[in-house]
Amino acid sequence: MKTERIALAALALCSLTALARAQTSLQTATGGNAGDQFGDALAVLGDLDGDGQAEFAVGAPFADPAGASSGLVRVLSGRTAAVLQSFSGLAAGDRLGESVACAGDVDGDGWNDLVAGAPNHDANGSNAGMARVWSGRTGAVLFTWHGDGAGDWFGMSVDGAGDVNGDGRADVIVGAPYGKGANTANVGEARIFSGFDGSVLRTLNSPQGVSVLGMSVSGAGDVDRDGFADVIVGAPQATYSYNDQGRAWVFSGRTGAVLRFFQGATAGENFGFCVDGGRDINKDGWPDFVIGSPFADYQGANSGSVFVHSGLDGAQLFHFRGTAASDDMGRSCAHAGDVDGDGWSDVIGGARLKDQGLANAGMARVWSGRTGAVLHSIYGAATDEMLGHAVAGGDDVNGDGLDDFVVGWPTFDAGSTSLDVGRARAFSAAPLPVTTYCTAGTSSSGCAATLTTSGSPSASASTPFVVRANGTVRLSTGFLFYGRHGQAAPYGSGWLCVKAPFVRLAAQGTQGSSMASTCSGFVQQDLNAHFRSGLDLAVQAGDTLFAQVFYRDGGASLSNAVLFTLQP
Fold first, then answer.
1. Residues 6+ apart with CB under 8 A from 138
2. What is the tens place of the pLDDT at every residue in 510-534?
3. SS3 532
């Protein structure tokens, strides 16, 4: 069987579009105005409204609610995507929403709270920065902290630290990647604040040079088993064996001592650009770490990587690589929670500059924490969309018992006059059912071909999955084609229901005979056999595909369409 990865000549279709892989889209939220860059930062917060489904927060640092680029953070319902709470920067240029995280239950009311950063807030000097904690239950401001001085960019990263001092309250960690502390030659610091009274519990400074320690921060769980939560802090410009190789330190929450560190293996990796901790991936009872290295070159220059390290002994558990040069994989990374229901926590990473045929369309990818296999991939749908700039996960947004995840692409365009509005979308790992959609056209002979399916779609099963178009014109030719996105665009006598680019399968006769009715023809294809043959190596288990049949009837006509998710 011949496979052509080209546009249908008769339909004059061209540019490559995004791959939509593996997920069911749950909720989608879009910024309100051009330039907002909604989706620049994300966090899954847990259930804040008592409906049993986790909410999520989205940052839009260039939104203008209190002046140009004052920034905002919205808390969205996991059930409906309705805005539950909205928080604004205090002044123009604050850029609130550059970072956002679940703070844990800071005020002890039984509900998780929210922390966000505004690294360009100027209260203590230009770009000194600010971080603020709000109640997840009421939206009231609980704490506000400021950077020490001009240029600190305090609030560039934030997270819940867990209870680092044993007082029963969740504490908070804030990064200031250009903070200087007492030694002005060493640039970068992170500060841990008490969730009880907001006081400074500990300041962690860069041990050497311009390391930009604090570009990323995360709670780490209790790594050293002393009964106190620990933290992990990224310093992507740390230089030891190689320039800008990057390093991530794990610090004791109780003493501030370095428990262990991890670092990039080559120059310029920027290892530690993102960090996440607190979940046990390999089920040994110890919390493990996810660390991004966006400029690593293992699959080409700046292809990027996401590493997983053991909390027990520091060993590397997984190395997940970008797929091509300049992908920027590891710009964002996180524990995804158990998205596939196998009892193991999984990992998500973002590659915002992944091309996939469209420059910088972006990609987010989920890997199994049990096997390291790719579970799901999602790709941007337009040039410079940068999907995967932010990722988050670890809780159940739709209430189906599986952890879901959220992906942000802040340079999403809502139209030619709404550039960089930004978008965030929550996804479930539950696959889409086999579903018909769109409307069959009526051909010049009066035929309206409709699709039926039999069997289950699979990337490897020996049993068939047959897609059949019944009611085509007899004794003609036709073929099935599929792609990564659906649509309903008028075309000729029907509708083009699959978005370019297409994979077009070999043409075949529409069967029937001169003695049968005019519309007694059919086109059918066993897609499992096609996928199993290896003729389309880009397709993997978990891909969601959209298929339609084209047949000739004087001019051309099109069936309705079907969408399905490939199982293993």
1. none
2. 987 778 789 999 999 999 999 999 8
3. helix
